[in-house]
Predict the structure.
Amino acid sequence: MKVMKFGGTSVADQPAIERLIALVRAERQAEAQTEGGDARGPVVVVSALSGVTDRLLGVAALAGSGDVEGARTSLQDLRARHIKVSEVIKDQSLRQPVVDSLNREFDELERVVTALAVLQEVSPRWLDALAATGEILSSQIVAAALTSHKLLASYVDSRKAVVTDGEHTAAAPMFEETTAALMTHADPPLAAGRIPVMGGFVGATTSGVTTTLGRGGSDFSAAIVGACLGASEIQIWTDVDGMLTADPRIVKNPQVVPHLSFAEASELAYFGAKVLHPATIQPAVARNIPVRILNSHRATARGTLITGERPKADRPLTAVASKKGVTVVDITSTRMLMAHGFLRRLFEVFERFKTPVDVVTTSEVSVSVTIDDARRLLSIIEGLSGFAHAEREDQMAIVCVVGDGLHDDPQLAANVLRSVGDVPLRMVSQAASRRNITFVIREADLPAALGRVHEKFFATQPSLASRATVGKPVGA
């Protein structure tokens, strides 16, 4: 049994959902024709219609500012769009209940934003309730659309099937409870030969309060469901051919990466890959479930396969990721010299203000770190001032070159740094696994540095991307 996750552009409108239906039909037929194939499923996980989550967050902002009319107008536009898209459900007896449900959801949203506009405050709990609506609606539409096209499907409310903690806007799944919930709500349709359809991104606490898994959480939802149900493969259907060797907005003719290891994909996702949510592969890694990235607009494209290990290739490096908008924080203190506990105190400050650190380098009396979220940096610097002096440097960028070959060839990391030429390196770091080499540079130098690395290590083979639709960037 496979999990097929479809992103926002894959459910954006009627033609997109019709392509989804064709892909699900093809998957069922392929399983039926495979000796020993699993006749159950697939499980379909869908994002909100393209752009809807952003619109809902905009509605929340309008309500929070007291602009109830602006919020209502936006909701009316969203209502009309969803009702229009529901025309993909050809059987009127199936479509009318969905339209009724859509209207009930939007009526309730209008009541909620009216109340929030009076308060002029939107708590994280209410923000989750608003943001989750997109996936709740899209999954109902897709389930009915599949059934109307002779692929019997069942809508499964993710608020009943995915159990999380209460960290609103960034909830963490509770796997034991989620497994039990999926056995209750998703397994019966599977056993009956139906296709469960769920909204990604959405869950609920043990007490039933709606939560979301954070932006990009629909991919995470697919992996959670796949891990809990023991899927044979998790497919991420999007609008690109797979992961690329570099950001196509910066580097000319990047190539599609056909095969990645879980470890390589983790590094690339963390340091800027946008095709895959960084948390997506963690449940898959734990259960050793392959993840495949595919293009719903070009079903014949090979895509990118991610497994525990990848075959040895002629090219020792896999891809180069990049991240803009980085801030370097330099922390200096003579108290650090020959002292224990200093780093613990330092990182406790970042933890207190819920700000993750990407890259770390240290010397005898200083520590340099990078962050990509500087919203709480003034408070962090104030927190550090009791035992250290801290300075910031903005408009920096991270470049992360990834490949299992770095572990096998000790000279490869030096060759990567040498390829950058005269670009000044602000920080350099290599993980203990020796699977990546990471350096920090000025954001203005990113095009030159990324282009030189890609030219040296990736431009020697014919470009796969030149024969395919340009994919979404590995680097941001």
Remarks:
- Residues 462-476 have pLDDT under 50 and may be disordered.
